[in-house]
C-alpha cells in the first residue's frame, strides 16, 4: 500500500470542515457576523446555517424582518457557492424569496442546496424553518463567477 491508500478517508472531510470553520471565523467581522449567522453543517453542494433571532432582527410588527430572511438565504446559498468555486470571486445575480409564515424571537435555520452548475453560473435553492420545523420561507438564487 502506498501512502495515499493508507490515509484516513475522513481526513478530507476534516480538512474541509476546518477550512469552513476558518471561513466562518473570517466572516465574523462582515455582514455574516453582524447578522449573527452560525455554520451548522456543510458538505459539497449543500450547507446549513442558523441564526438566533434577536430584537434587532424584528420589524415593527415584532416578527422577523423579511430582509433578515432574504439575507439568511443569500448567506447560506453563497456559502455553497464558495465551496463549489474555491478561490473564485462570485456574486449574487438573482434572489427570489417566498415568505410563507412569520416568527419572532428564537432560532431559525436555513438549508441551501446546489441544483445546477454551469461554466459561469450556479443556481441554488434554500429554505428557512423555525425551531419547530415550520417552513418560514424558501427561495432560489443565481450566482455568477466574476472574472
TrEMBL record:
Residues 63-136 form the Thioesterase domain. The keyword Hydrolase applies. It comes from the Bacteria. Keywords: Hydrolase. GO terms for cellular component: cytosol. GO terms for molecular function: 1,4-dihydroxy-2-naphthoyl-CoA thioesterase activity. It holds the Pfam family 4HBT. Coiled coil: none annotated. NCBIfam families: unchar_dom_1. This is Uncharacterized protein (TIGR00369 family). It comes from Paenibacillus taihuensis.
Amino acid at each position: 500500500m502506498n501512502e495515499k491508500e493508507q490515509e484516513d478517508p475522513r481526513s478530507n472531510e476534516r480538512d474541509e470542515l476546518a477550512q469552513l470553520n476558518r471561513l466562518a471565523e473570517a466572516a465574523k467581522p462582515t455582514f455574516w457576523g453582524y447578522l449573527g449567522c452560525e455554520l451548522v453543517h456543510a458538505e459539497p453542494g449543500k450547507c446549513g446555517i442558523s441564526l438566533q433571532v434577536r430584537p434587532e432582527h424584528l420589524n415593527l410588527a415584532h416578527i422577523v424582518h423579511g430582509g433578515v430572511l432574504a439575507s439568511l438565504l443569500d448567506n447560506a446559498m453563497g456559502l455553497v457557492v464558495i465551496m463549489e468555486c474555491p478561490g473564485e470571486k462570485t456574486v449574487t445575480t438573482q434572489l427570489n424569496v417566498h415568505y410563507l409564515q412569520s416568527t419572532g424571537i428564537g432560532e431559525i435555520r436555513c438549508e441551501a442546496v446546489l441544483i445546477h452548475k454551469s461554466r459561469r453560473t450556479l443556481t441554488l435553492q434554500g429554505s428557512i424553518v423555525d425551531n419547530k420545523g415550520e417552513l418560514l420561507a424558501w427561495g432560489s438564487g443565481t450566482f455568477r463567477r466574476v472574472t
